[in-house]
């Protein structure tokens, strides 16, 4: 505590945020000369980026401090968003836009001899996520800050984010993404916040003769320290700045002297290095559970540190424990943080001396769980032997949770179910899967330990109730299960990614208010007959296509004249269920068709198209890697074929990431969201593309359904089988003697096998998965319907005026898909929290 007599001095010298160019310029030069120890004679774009970002950061920190102080004083209920992934992308542009200082910084930098756009390119992406789930977490943080919700994100500070993808001879090659090479101005190391986290060891029973009770005590065998790094999260057009706290693993400073004395110094050091490996690298799997010990360690490390922090903050308020769920809402971003449920129960029981029931009541009220996939292979399960070794006390607690839960189920159903039915129900909802080896089912635990479970789009939320979690609906009824359809932040995905469109919209809607209330976009429908507006709309798209072709030229060397082509884009993780194979088979089909035409016919019949692909495959996902190789091989042939020149291009953009998405998405005429119906939980890039004036071709899956409802069926190209029929079709495939392919697909397969795209045999597994291995993803069933939809697109694009009309109507009706709306829904239905306005 600073003595009262000193405080006026503190106030006098309190940091002043820059608000004028001259302030920015002064602070910039200051950072160049002191923070970076450089000078005007020694200042490249990288140094300028660092100085500029430090200057913007300083402004953020002032508001961040004040927000945190204010929240501590008011002590409102807080939301804690636990996510193992935060796919943030770049921070600088976002920070400037949110604080409303971009123009000022741009002008200042120009006066100082730099170009803002070049400087922004210096920033590495914070790529601490795989795809949809991680990017959603990032959008939510933006909306939480913008909506002034007192909230913290908790995650891990991986030293290596998602790998950088290189394409060598058409193949994906992974290279490490060491994003912390230069000091990172957007994080504040909190070296003073050090939380010990234990692993392994054993459980002891301690008898208390006074109470006549025995108590369990976990004696951990290996200790690691969690150090906090804080990332300020600015809101748009508000002084509210929330916090994202990421944990980094460090060894304890306590040295193992027994090893040291026995001369085993090297081993002693090795043990310390082992600690740091916990937060070394993000697991690069999307929608897939690999089940590695280190991953479980990551999960517990993160959850233990975060809960310690949350509980400590609560205890400081001296409120009674019964108020815990009134002050704390914890949201589990998929099952990765499910151990938090067990850890909180452990804290209450073992450390705070609660009764089981009192503790459990608080725990369940505190947690909410969001499910992000129905893919079987993504559902997390941990082998009991591993669990028992790593977290022996937690396993005991899980058994007890399960015991009481199953008892409750038995009681509820024993009078109405037969013995067999009851057994089936119990084994299906049990946290423990009784096969060899026995496993802990994390989703079951997450459901039992949360008061609300939500899916991420209407169709998905219905599906989980009738498939993977149907037996839980029997137990709990369906009130516990709800839906919050995903959304995206319009600040990053419209204003930042597409400044020209954002400005054009602002010019009609009287400013940028719509970025805070996206439903205002609806007013764009007043301009459907405004020729000048529609012309400008068209020009913006063209400019964005130019911007993308520049990027393509830089990354692949391929030159494209955007005025000639319709841009058809599919960018997302490469996965069989997302069906990039369907897309590339379609491209091949088109190529064969073009080849079959005379030059004259081509001219009159063919709509010129560029197909753009981008996305990473998990390093161990053979089939996905083969799809990448095929796309590149098709590009190699098509892009160099004179017959196809001016009609067809096929591009694979390497190393798709958030900052590239910001350039790619605004350039689409059409984007592809073509997962097998029932497999894509929501999708969020579909929303980004439409918000940027692109139309979409898609299956009746995930959020495509709600997008269609909002923008109208006339403005979307839907095709393919419906989710409700998928199981029957699969069943038919399974029992058919052989699968009959449509003629169109046969042609494509023949072309591939003939060696047009390199060694035909190479793609055998891809073709076989369709024709001999039961075509699980229904490529053959949907192919013709897909081709028809593509034809409709070609037809529709000819009437450019109508196309622009569709594009405007679509954008006008995207208000629902703002992540601000999602956060309001979570706040009301799940968290019971209110915004806190800073005075
Ligand atoms: C990743 C790992 C495990 C489980 C799910 C995921 C994941 O990324 N799921 C994706 O989440 C997005 C956000 O909710 C959805 O839009 C995607 O459809 C879904 O695949």
TrEMBL record:
Coiled coil: none annotated. One of its GO terms (cellular component) is cytoplasm. Its cofactor is pyridoxal 5'-phosphate. The modification N6-(pyridoxal phosphate)lysine is found at residue 688. InterPro entries: Glycg_phsphrylas (IPR011833), Glyco_trans_35 (IPR000811), Pyridoxal_P_attach_site (IPR035090). Allosteric enzyme that catalyzes the rate-limiting step in glycogen catabolism, the phosphorolytic cleavage of glycogen to produce glucose-1-phosphate, and plays a central role in maintaining cellular and organismal glucose homeostasis. Belongs to the glycogen phosphorylase family. This is Alpha-1,4 glucan phosphorylase. It comes from Ascoidea rubescens DSM 1968.
């Amino acid at each position: 505590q600073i003595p009262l007599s000193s405080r006026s001095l503190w106030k006098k010298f309190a940091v002043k945020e820059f608000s004028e160019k001259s302030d920015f310029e002064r602070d910039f030069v200051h950072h160049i000369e002191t923070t970076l120890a450089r000078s005007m004679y020694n200042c490249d774009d990288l140094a300028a980026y660092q100085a500029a970002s430090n200057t913007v950061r300083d402004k953020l920190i002032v508001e961040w401090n004040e927000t945190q102080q204010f929240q501590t004083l008011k002590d409102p209920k807080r939301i804690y968003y636990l996510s193992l992934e935060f796919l943030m992308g770049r921070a600088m542009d976002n920070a400037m836009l949110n604080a409303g200082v971009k123009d000022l910084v741009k002008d200042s930098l120009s006066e100082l001899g730099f170009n803002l756009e070049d400087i922004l390119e210096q920033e590495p992406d914070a790529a601490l996520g795989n795809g949809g789930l991680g990017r959603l977490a990032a959008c939510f943080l933006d909306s939480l800050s913008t909506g002034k919700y007192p909230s913290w994100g908790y995650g891990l500070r991986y030293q290596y984010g998602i790998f950088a993808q290189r394409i060598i001879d058409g193949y994906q090659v992974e290279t490490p993404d060491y994003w912390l090479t230069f000091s990172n101005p957007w994080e504040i190391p909190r070296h003073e916040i050090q939380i010990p986290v234990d692993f392994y060891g054993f459980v002891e029973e301690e008898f208390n003769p006074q109470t006549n009770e025995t108590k369990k005590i976990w004696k951990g065998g290996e200790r690691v320290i969690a150090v906090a790094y804080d990332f300020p999260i600015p809101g748009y057009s508000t002084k509210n700045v929330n916090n994202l706290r990421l944990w980094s693993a460090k060894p304890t400073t306590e040295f193992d002297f027994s090893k040291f004395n026995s001369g085993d110094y090297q081993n002693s050091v090795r043990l310390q290095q082992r600690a740091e490996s916990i937060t070394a690298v993000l697991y690069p799997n999307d929608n897939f559970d690999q089940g590695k010990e280190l991953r479980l360690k990551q999960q517990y490390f993160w959850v233990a540190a975060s809960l310690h922090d949350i509980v400590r903050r609560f205890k400081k308020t001296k409120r009674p424990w019964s108020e815990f769920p009134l002050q704390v809402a914890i949201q589990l971003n998929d099952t990765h943080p499910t151990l938090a449920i067990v850890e909180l129960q452990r804290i209450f029981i073992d450390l705070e001396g609660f009764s089981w029931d009192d503790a459990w009541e608080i725990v369940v009220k505190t947690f909410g769980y969001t499910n992000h996939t129905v893919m079987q292979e993504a559902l997390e399960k941990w082998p009991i032997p591993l669990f028992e070794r790593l977290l022996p006390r937690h396993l005991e607690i899980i058994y007890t949770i399960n015991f009481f839960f199953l008892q409750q189920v038995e009681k509820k159903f024993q009078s109405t179910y037969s013995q067999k039915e009851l057994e089936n129900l119990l084994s299906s909802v049990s946290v423990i899967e009784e096969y060899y080896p026995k496993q802990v089912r994390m989703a079951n635990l997450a459901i039992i330990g949360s008061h609300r479970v939500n899916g991420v789009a209407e169709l998905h939320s219905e599906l989980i109730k009738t498939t993977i979690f149907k037996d839980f609906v029997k137990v709990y009824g369906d009130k516990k299960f709800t839906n919050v359809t995903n959304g995206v932040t319009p600040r990053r995905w419209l204003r930042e990614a597409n400044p020209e469109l954002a400005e054009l919209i602002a010019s009609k809607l009287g400013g940028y208010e719509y970025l805070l209330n996206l439903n205002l976009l609806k007013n764009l429908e007043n301009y459907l007959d405004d020729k000048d507006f529609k012309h400008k709309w068209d020009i913006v798209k063209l400019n964005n296509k130019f911007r993308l072709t520049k990027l393509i030229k830089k990354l692949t060397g391929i030159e494209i004249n955007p005025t000639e082509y319709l841009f058809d884009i599919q960018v997302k993780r490469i996965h069989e269920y997302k069906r990039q194979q369907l897309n590339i088979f379609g491209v091949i089909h088109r190529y064969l068709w073009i080849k079959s035409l005379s030059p004259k016919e081509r001219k009159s019949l063919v709509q010129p198209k560029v197909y753009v692909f981008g996305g990473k495959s998990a390093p161990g996902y053979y089939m996905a890697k083969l799809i990448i190789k095929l796309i590149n091989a098709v590009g190699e042939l098509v892009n160099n074929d004179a017959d196809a020149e001016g009609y067809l291009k096929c591009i694979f953009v390497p190393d798709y990431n958030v900052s590239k998405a910001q350039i790619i998405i605004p350039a689409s005429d059409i984007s592809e969201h073509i997962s097998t119906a029932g497999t894509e939980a929501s999708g969020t890039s579909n929303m980004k593309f439409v918000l940027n004036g692109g139309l979409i071709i898609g299956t009746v899956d995930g959020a495509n359904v709600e997008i269609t409802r909002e923008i109208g069926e006339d403005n979307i190209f839907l095709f393919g089988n419906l989710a409700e029929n998928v199981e029957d079709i699969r069943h038919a495939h399974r029992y058919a003697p052989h699968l009959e392919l449509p003629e169109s697909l046969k042609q494509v397969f023949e072309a591939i096998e003939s060696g047009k795209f390199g060694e035909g045999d190479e793609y055998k597994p891809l073709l076989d998965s369709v024709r001999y291995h039961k075509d699980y993803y229904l490529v053959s069933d949907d192919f013709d319907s897909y081709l028809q939809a593509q034809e409709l697109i070609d037809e529709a694009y000819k009437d450019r005026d109508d196309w622009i009309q569709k594009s405007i109507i679509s954008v006008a009706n995207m208000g629902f898909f703002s992540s601000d709306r999602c956060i309001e829904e979570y706040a009301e239905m799940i968290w019971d929290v209110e915004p806190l306005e800073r005075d």
